[in-house]
């Protein structure tokens, strides 16, 4: 379970938080005075694992797209972005 500390307490407790999270191999969360999350503290191993997983996914996409024209792919991506923006605008109207 993630530990949560407030920003105003962070300067006093960040070192303790990081140390306890390291020992427990858990994540932590830092919130500001309004309750908004401003930072996460995650174990290095978890960060590294996620980073590697993301690049495996990117490599798979590159492999699937290797025969496609990069300019055509960019056009399709831009069209998808425009479609999402249009859908988001219609949904909030």
General description of the model:
With 93 residues, the protein is an alpha+beta fold. It is built from 3 helices and 3 strands. It has a 3-stranded mixed beta sheet with strand order 1-2-3, with helices on one face. The radius of gyration is 20 Å and the shape is flat. It starts with a strand and ends with a helix. The mean pLDDT is 82.
Q: In percent, how much strand structure appears in the residues?
A: 5-15%
Structural category is alpha+beta
Q: What's the number of extended β-strand segments?
A: 3
The biggest sheet amounts to: 3 strands, mixed
Side-by-side strand order of the widest sheet: 1-2-3
Spans with pLDDT under 50 lasting ≥5 residues?
Answer: none
- What fraction, in percent, of the residue positions are helical? 55-70%
Number of domains: 2
Determine the number of helices (DSSP H or I, runs of at least 4 residues): 3
What is the assembly state of the chains in this entry? single chain
């Amino acid at each position: 379970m993630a530990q949560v500390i407030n920003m105003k307490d962070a300067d006093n407790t960040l070192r303790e938080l990081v140390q306890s999270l390291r020992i427990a191999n858990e994540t932590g969360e830092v919130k500001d005075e309004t309750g908004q999350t401003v930072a996460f503290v995650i174990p290095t191993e978890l960060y590294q694992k996620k980073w590697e997983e993301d690049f495996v996914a990117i490599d798979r996409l590159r492999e699937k797209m290797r025969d496609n024209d990069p300019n055509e792919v960019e056009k399709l991506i831009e069209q998808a972005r425009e479609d999402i923006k249009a859908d988001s605008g219609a949904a909030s109207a």
